């Protein structure tokens, strides 16, 4: 019997690589989807391709959607990425690295591909703990998208609500995400989390994303094999 | 006082041109958004630009999203467009011209732009009567997207649900849409409805979209000023 198909959103970061490994472990035939959305660096796209290949996807697709034309975020426009900012874990305020409606855009495109493939399962690496400031990482947002998917599509209507958005990391701590991925064979050396890598592809070690990652690896006593320019002031690499 | 901003989805067709005129008449400063999504012809994109200019938008933006990579519809892939098919108005079955998750993709991108602009109003020309086979033209779908928009965005969360998706045509007949647009100064000669225009930009007159349009113009005794290759067998042009 053929495996059920799933579309997995794959950014090339630590979280989405882990999600892909989880989807594969659940027996899905995985179709991974990455985006070229006017990121400041192409390294993220290359990392996603490397992760997809190493985890045996059926197909990896990179779709160009130039969100930069809208402006509005440190990840797509020319704003400075915050380094070593206070309040790494806290507060619930919306960070400057927030991209308007990003998960909605990405999930919509995943849904379009899923419907074409005959897939009813979409996997997304959102996390409600480390990204508490992002409105589109909350469980109520995911539930609303799942409802929309089943109303929006011919497949959803005909199959009476079979679309599911899987967010296996949503309540996990970063350290547990890494432990899960390691147990499923993820090579985190292929991933890229940094918001601001240098021209040689080395991670900065000081943006929020690097610091959360370094802190989590340190907490479980595992060496992070990605290359860093400089470790964060407050986290031992 | 500055006018409130609205993002208007503008395909270059008859419906979206009318919606833009309605949004303008309601006093919004209009930002129109068109897509280059791998259509078979660029005429649709050019029609949208001509309509936007003629109706005085603040900015018209064409965003490239290559939905063709997903395959799956007569409007993006190499399937034949049905001509003079029986059952033009009926049945509720999903037509071959359906594009997977199209309105969800387009609304998501409109939402991203709206949030960046500080707009809370999105206008969309869906119609539940003539397009009864499209799941993403139903009122319950629009309501679900509106709910999602307010959960998905920083602006929605901070402004406690101010996003609105306006669908002024949803319960209108095509003939009433045209009458409304004419009263608001829409030049329908600049629009393009045909799914399969020829190389000279002439509409085929035989696809569902041409036939609905010709029938509606005929019913109100107005001459449709777009150029046709051939009128439909069952509708007087």
Q: What's the helix and strand layout?
A:
2 copies of one chain form a homodimer.
Chain A: E1 5-9, H1 14-25, E2 29-36, H2 43-54, E3 59-64, H3 102-117, E4 121-123, H4 139-152, H5 154-158, E5 164-166, H6 174-183, H7 208-219
Parallel strand pairs in A: 1-2, 1-4, 2-3, 4-5
Helix pairs in contact in A: 1-6, 6-7
By CATH reckoning, the class of chain A would read: Alpha Beta
Task: State mean pLDDT of chain A (0 to 100 scale).
Answer: 86
What class do helices, strands and sheet pairing of chain A give?
A: alpha/beta
**In percent, how helical is the residue content of chain A?**
25-40%
Report the total helices of chain A.
Answer: 7
The greatest interface here is: A-B, 45 and 44 residues
Low-confidence stretches of chain A: none
Gross morphology of chain A: globular
CATH architecture of chain A: 3-Layer(aba) Sandwich
């Amino acid at each position: 019997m053929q495996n059920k198909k799933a579309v997995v959103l794959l950014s090339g970061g630590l979280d989405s690589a882990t999600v892909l490994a989880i989807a594969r472990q659940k027996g899905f035939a995985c179709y991974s989807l990455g985006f070229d959305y006017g990121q400041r660096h192409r390294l993220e796209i290359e990392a996603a391709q490397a992760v997809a290949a190493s985890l045996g996807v059926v197909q990896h697709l990179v779709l160009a959607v130039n969100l930069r034309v809208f402006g509005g975020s440190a990840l797509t426009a020319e704003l400075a990425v915050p380094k070593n900012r206070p309040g790494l874990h806290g507060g619930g305020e919306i960070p400057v690295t927030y991209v308007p409606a990003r998960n909605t855009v990405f999930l919509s495109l995943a849904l379009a591909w899923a419907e074409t493939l005959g897939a009813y399962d979409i996997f997304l690496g959102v996390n409600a703990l480390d990204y508490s400031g992002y409105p589109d990482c909350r469980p109520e947002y995911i539930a609303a998208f799942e409802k929309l998917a089943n109303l929006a599509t011919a497949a959803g209507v005909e199959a009476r609500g079979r679309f599911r958005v899987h967010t296996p990391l949503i309540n996990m701590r970063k350290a547990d995400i890494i432990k899960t991925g390691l147990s499923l064979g993820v090579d985190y050396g292929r991933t890229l989390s940094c918001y601001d890598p240098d021209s040689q592809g080395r991670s900065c070690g000081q943006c929020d994303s690097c610091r959360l990652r370094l802190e989590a690896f340190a907490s479980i006593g595992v060496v992070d094999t990605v290359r860093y320019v400089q470790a964060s002031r407050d986290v031992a690499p």
